[in-house]
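fyi for ur records
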Amino acid sequence: MRKGKRQQEHQELSLHVRKVFEENKACYGSPRITVELQAKGFRVSRPRVARELRKIGLKSIVRKKYGIQTTDSNHIYQVSENHLNKDFIAEKLGEKWVSDLTAAAAAYIKEKAGLILQQYLILQIVR
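which gave:
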């Protein structure tokens, strides 16, 4: 029995998708494979490549961009003096102030004028 034109195209695409996937050590997903195939002259969309990947049972390896980062105690920067020394009890209101500058301290907010760097500084009055 003869295969139709569409079946042949699907089979050829499947072979090329698998080839690009394996050439790139299973790290490429549908967006990158689509770009590679389009550069080779194939007229394919990302959803079509994604369907082919699912159909043949391939899934890209997702690698973390950042590893574990711990505190670097051996730096050249000046270390501020610890004035409170874990004594957070204040005699009067406003005597001791504590601030917390966390990872959320610098958040980019997209607005009409572009990206605006907004800093959050959380101040607490310790009583």
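Residues 5-23 form the longest helix (19 residues). thats all i got for now
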